[in-house]
Amino acid sequence: MTDSSGYLPLPESFDSKEKIYYSMGETCEIFNLPASTLRFWEKEFDVLKPRKNKKGDRFFSKNDISLIRTIHYLTKVKGYTLQGARDAIKGNLIKEADNAAIIASLTEIKEMLLKIKKEID
Known about the structure:
121 residues; 4 helices; mainly alpha; 3-stranded antiparallel sheet; globular; 7% strand
């Protein structure tokens, strides 16, 4: 569920302090994306490098999750092309990641406030 900014907040089950790595299935669930999209983005964005075990299963770190969140925001919300998103990430990775993190925090705060308002009413 997106808010008025179109940004997808992380589900309540996602606790970045709890785990070091997230499986492909967990990451797909967090962003409501098919695994094929994440695999495609891995090929398209050089900076996205999930760990792989001997079987080839992908495991995403907190940094990978943050990068996927930025890619998702740029391509799905802002409407950037893949090349435009690549250029934005290469040129302004810190700025784009900060913007995505700020929007995510504000979205989570908004969701929490709406939940509190609903409980009061």
